[in-house]
Amino acid sequence: MRKLFVILAGAFLLTSTPAQAAEEYGWRFASVTTDIFIARPFTFLATILGGAIWTVSLPVTAPTRTSEEAFDALVRRPWELTVDRELGEYDEL
Length: 93
Description:
By secondary structure, this protein is mostly helical. The protein contains two helices and no strands. The N and C termini lie far apart (56 Å).
């Protein structure tokens, strides 16, 4: 009886640990893959479009001395989200 218990307990431990690891890394794999193929290209595109919009808005923002604020919102923030953020981390979005 004791041998059967040890065998069943060992089998349970061997099968439960990989399932937990697969669940944890499965979500991590999905978030990293989504980040690489969807989020990063869109934030890079937002950086490029933000740069174009910022350039067009300079005649309005330069006299009012708000061009740096506009640059931060339209170019710097999307660039930081594209380059400085860890893969799969969406806390800053």
